[in-house]
Amino acid sequence: MPNRASRRILNLAALSLLIVLLAACGGGPTKGDIVQAANIPPSFDVTIYAAKDNQFTYDGAPLTEEDFKSALRYRKEQNLPIATILMKRSDDQKVKSEHVISLARVAYQMNVKAYVQEKDGTISEIRAQVKDAEEQPKPKPAEAGK
Q1: Residues 6 or more apart from 18 whose CB is under 8 A from it?
Q2: How many helices (H) and strands (E) does the chain have?
């Protein structure tokens, strides 16, 4: 009898170890599980890269937000397409929130669609939201006791 009990304990231990190993291997999402959104176009008219000091690299030149808008206006004058813009991470600079805000501002002012490519390769659309005058915080009334 003691031999049978020890054999059963070993079998249960081996089974539980196998279950733990299978659970660890089948875990979280893999790169193949990430699916790109449906509204992403197959190609982009303009591709820019995030640069230092909250600038963009376009055609090899670092541009500020205003310079980039001027470059887009020039493309429009030359009848080149500017309907979609993709911002990617550069070799030495990651995409910061300041880059996204600047690109959203440019996209809103130029009436184009802007997208950003994340580190894992997924592409997201950037949408600007404008606050109405009614939504602005109202000034606090002056204190009555003064």
Answers
A1: none
A2: 3, 6
> What is the tally of structural domains in the chain?
1
pLDDT at 26 exceeding the cut of 60: no
In the structure, what pLDDT confidence band is assigned to residue 139 with cuts at 50, 70 and 90?
low
pTM attached to this predicted model: 0.64
On whether residue 98 sits in a domain, the answer given is: yes
Cα–Cα distance for residue pair 98/41, rounded to 1 Å = 24
Task: Say if 104 falls within a structural domain.
Answer: yes
DSSP 146: -
Alpha-carbon gap, residue 43 to 71, rounded angstroms? 20
Look at residue 143 and tell me if it is in a domain: no
Residue 108 lies inside a defined structural domain of this protein: yes
Band of pLDDT at residue 31, cut at 50, 70 and 90: very low
Residue span of the structural domain in which 93 resides: 38-126
Quote the CA–CA distance of 92 and 82 in Å, as a whole number: 26
